[in-house]
Amino acid sequence: MLDLRRLEALVAVADHGSVSAAATTLGLSQPAVSHHLARLEAEVGMPLLVRHARGVRPTAAGDALLVHARGLLDRARAADDALGDLRALRTGRVDLLAFPTAFVDLVPRAIQHLREEDARFDVRFGPAARGPALAAVAAGTTDLALVFAAAGDTESPRLPAGLVAEPLMEDPMLVVLAREHPLAGRAQVSLADLADERWVLGTARGPDAIIRRALVAAGIDPSDAIVTDDLLAAQGIVAAGLAVTLSPALAVAHARPGVVLRALAEPQLSRRIDVVRRAADTAPAIRATTGALRTIAEELAG
Question: Could you tell me which Pfam families the record lists for this protein (predicted)?
Fold first, then answer.
């Protein structure tokens, strides 16, 4: 089996044209490089380098070996990098900010996925709206942010400089009805079907801002809605037959008994969920966390 250190010495001498230059590049002494070359020539049983007026050059055997040596060294470096990435996943921490409903299913399952993949770094997470979450990533006080915008919305605020966003999934809005509601037997329900219903909505922020705009566009006045930002309370109000609502699918991944979830007929409504990081930050733990979020997002999107 050829020694990688000796192959590295051969490549360095061939690239730089002299033993002294190769020694400087490798951080070795000239005698050490010469020793590696001598041992390599002894192993293969033929000369690999020949001296000339300007230094050294490979022989025919040296040229043949160099082709394979470069490939072997590239693969060895790639293997070392891969193992380094795995070692990096044993320690450290990733800080994640996200909108609250991401913690119903997406974030917990992503962290569980990391544990199943034997990643041992710590993931610290907390809730934050889009603006503060992006500002924290830009400032370097958090590593990743999960944010959303209405699907197809071209007017969402631009990302701060130096940040990149990766789309994870489309999160559709579902109609939430009491199990005994007259429309509960349908597979799809339109906003027009709900024009005369009482609504329960959150305050006019987050996904509820998207929902309120859609209601107004459909000619439904949401000003008389029951208002609560508590998702369980909203489902309880719906289950009691007091109102209907729209909810992102992520938020009702574990709907309470007494309610049914139905697809929203045209016009369909959804929000686009992105994971945002600093463009220059490609640490293994950040890549692994982003990959886990992507995997679970794909599962949830079905």
Answer: HTH_1, LysR_substrate
